[in-house]
Amino acid sequence: MHAYNSRESLVITNSSIASIQNVMVEVDVSSLERSSTGSVTGVVFIRAGDVSFPEVRWSDFPVVSMSWWLEPVSRILVGKSRVWECRFMDGPFTARLEQQHGDTWALSLIHSGRVEFVATVSCRAFISSLLDARVRS
């Protein structure tokens, strides 16, 4: 399993207690399989502290999903986008990032329209994590 750390982040829980956590995009390169139609499936998920989203070892379409996630990066880096949605291909799961100020973005992990977890993250560090995961997958 390869873990890609996007630096430590401030995590805000329902109890309003803040703590420092790591946020990572994790891809298990050894799990990648290509179907007869060319689709690539494998383990891909986001880990924020003790929270794994959508869940630990989530099986999805990491090449397609990460391509979607990386598509708006150039607009984000030049300040043309302040909201970024990273949808998983399998299931109703979305990681939504919204700019707070500068490089500080709120990361919301959403299942079926319900926010399950919120963290404050460095957008550039998250982008770096995605780029690292993309290169290795």
Please explain how this structure is put together:
With 137 residues, this protein is of the alpha+beta class. The chain has one domain (2-136). It contains three helices and nine strands, in the order E-E-E-E-E-H-H-E-E-E-E-H. Strands 1, 2, 3, 4, 5, 6, 7, 8 and 9 form a nine-stranded antiparallel β-sheet that branches. Strand 3 (40-48) and strand 4 form a beta hairpin. Helix 1 (62-70) runs antiparallel to helix 3 (123-136). The longest helix has 14 residues, at 123-136.
Please give the structural blueprint.
Blueprint: E1 2-12, E2 18-34, E3 40-48, E4 51-53, E5 59-60, H1 62-70, H2 73-77, E6 83-87, E7 93-101, E8 104-111, E9 114-122, H3 123-136
Helix pairs in contact: 1-3
- The H/E string reads EEEEEHHEEEEH
Give the quaternary arrangement of the chains.
Answer: single chain
What value does the average pLDDT take?
82
Structural class: alpha+beta
Strand content: over 45%
Supply Rg.
14 Å
Domain module tally? 1
- Could you list the spans in which at least 5 consecutive residues all have pLDDT below 50? 1-20
Largest sheet, strands/sense/barrel: 9 strands, antiparallel
Number of strands: 9
